[in-house]
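Could you join me in thinking about how sequence relates to backbone shape in a protein? Label the sequence line and the structure token line clearly, so we can match residues to local backbone shapes. Once you have written the record down, we can walk along the chain together.
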Amino acid sequence: MSTVRKLASQTVLYGFTYFAGRLLSFMLTPFYTRIFAPSEYGTISIIYSLIPFLTVIYSYGMETGYFYFSNKEKDDSKVAGTGFLSLIYSSILLSVILMLCSPWLASLVDTRARIDYIIYIAMILAFDNIAVLPFAYLRRHEKSIRFAVLKTMNIVLNLFFNFFFLVFCPYLLEHSGTGTVYNLVSHIYQPGDGVKYVVLSNVISSFIMLVLLLPEIRKIELQWNKEIWQRMLKYSWPLLILGFAGVINETFDRALLKLRLPGSNEYKLSQIGIYSACYKISIFMTLAIQSFRYAAEPFFFKQMRESNSRDVYATVLKYFSFITSLIFLGVLLYLPLAMRIIGKDFRSAEDIVPILLMANLFLGLFLYLSQWYKQTEKVLYGAYVSIGGAVITLIINFIFIPKYGYMASAWATLAAYSSMAIVSGILGQKHFPVNYPVVRIAFYIWFAVTLYVVSRLAMDSMFDGQWSIGVYFLNTIFGLIYITVFISLERPSMLLGLPVVRKFKRSHAN
């Protein structure tokens, strides 16, 4: 339990600062959905769907390779230096290629996309991926506070420049007359192209973040070791396949919506914008998963040499399942409040939120259960599982989007992530058996879904399907019931992990 508490404390620290940062970033969603039309927001969504796809190529699993080999090699500096130089060279090369291909990519992405958008994206990718190893270095050496502060600053900077370009500059142009201020602002801002300044804000914030990472970069010895580099590539290249499949599952539905939806280009972009905005409501689940991942990945690589590591994995998954199920239930019990985050014109896709929350819960389980193949050097298994999920995503979207629209995309996401979690768990038990409390985990997920269904039935029968104070009061009771059941089931095991109880047991044993 002490090991679990250590992971929990790291997760809480990452989680608090990551949540604060993401909350600031999430402010961009109500901001964008109030100043942009759905079609414009759809254009932004399509442009930004490129970044995760290209990030997989840029990073090629080097971060995970660094965590793995830094725990195997006696000299951590060689691993860090080799990985960092590899990412610098490859990021510069790939960004140059991307810039040269920008005319073709601009026409491929969207009719509204311009060459300068692609150039900006190339710059973002270069800056962000050169920063990958310095950030991984901080996580490896448990500098969680520094890591979290820098990540939060990156988001704050992006938020600041968005407001600077999209609010402050237009205000100055409108109210400063034709004097010096007007001339100065007009040189850095031209009205009518808000999408450009969304991407440019990201470029500036990513560059500043790289500058702020200079103290960490100086600590990494820039030494090249060909043997280590080859071993890192051999270990990491299947993660490239896994990453591609993951991006298809996460973002490719936007491209398929544009391809398969009937109607005009304006209508398609509007539907993509509405879908993307409602997808953001599942950010509460994403926050928990990402915060846990930041703490868990280096933790698990360090833990794998311990004799009780598999017991720790089983215990952590049980608590992880409860937390994610509680988030699923909590968001849905107060869904109208969560939906207020986005503009009124974007709330018509509310029905996809429960589906996407559950999909992301299964994604969290998959990411947790996928640790086994990273620790046993069977990374290809993870690639195969992710490819299977990507195939499910593509098939369901391609067949059902013309009839069901973005609802098909939501169900495809759930089908892909749930199947990936189940298959990864089955394979893990074959190659890296862990005695997971499967019944308890399944119960927490089932109980959360059941309480949500009961709450909806109660609202329909007692309140005519209308949200009111009475509904919120009843849903609060449902939430407290869920927490109470968890405490009653887990309290004995949690108490046994307390230091005073362990000391008492040892003294009586002697």
